[in-house]
């Protein structure tokens, strides 16, 4: 590990997400961003950080870790080179475009004892962190259903994967993480309306452990941007809006009604609504702090490469279901 100014970090990719990573790395305590790899002619990094154009020059920067924010199709090739060079890596989600490629990355980093993580940024959203803590404390009682909606305009930056790998992987990861339940079966339908080779809308119904049901609606064809997670259970329902980092709880009411017909129709009655006050730190900054701590050998809550591979496994099952029209069983996670 480097002395002096702390950890030496490098960044691969200066696209929309890469520039956000550069901004945060330039602000991060205990870390110095010493170089950026981007093959685009004339690429300029924020803060005047030197830009190199090939992986050999990048590895020669004597890095402690790298942030990989290049297109998904390059993650395996670049990740394996970093592992061979003994460089820890925070790889943007999804980990890789296939289960096989994800597994090779997991093996490469684990076999060398290197810290590897996947940038599933929703785990660091204040609303979802608060929600997870409240679910663990039993504030909802038994969980019945998780419904996520993630839609917005088409991102011009994405060319190599469809909406399942690019966006639905957010919802797959956050649902398993927030609830602590794994996926068992998925049924999905996709359509492609934008004239591109990949799907741009998906609807998923999933069975999870302990009878929990999940629904994911994802598209990048809507002019309205929406990011919501609704979890319904025995005591009411939580709604997390990850765009605004707001968390709201609607309690099942305890007030009865004398109108028998209405009582029979309504079932659960409407109760109090609470919107929680949550400290709102930038999720990307928190993600970087956690990864920095892990590289320094501290106990830290990162999304491991193996967890990232599990999300890719579920996403692959979603694509398989959409292609075949069948419900697809999700294999049990590999040990490790």
Automatic annotation (TrEMBL):
One term of GO molecular function: nucleotide binding
Span of domain GFO/IDH/MocA-like oxidoreductase: 129-238
InterPro entries: Gfo/Idh/MocA-like_OxRdtase_N, Gfo/Idh/MocA_Oxidoreductases, GFO_IDH_MocA-like_dom, NAD(P)-bd_dom_sf
Signal peptide location: none
Record Pfam families: GFO_IDH_MocA, GFO_IDH_MocA_C3
Domain Gfo/Idh/MocA-like oxidoreductase N-terminal: 8-120
PANTHER family: BILIVERDIN REDUCTASE A
Protein known as: Dehydrogenase
Species the sequence originates in: Actinoplanes auranticolor
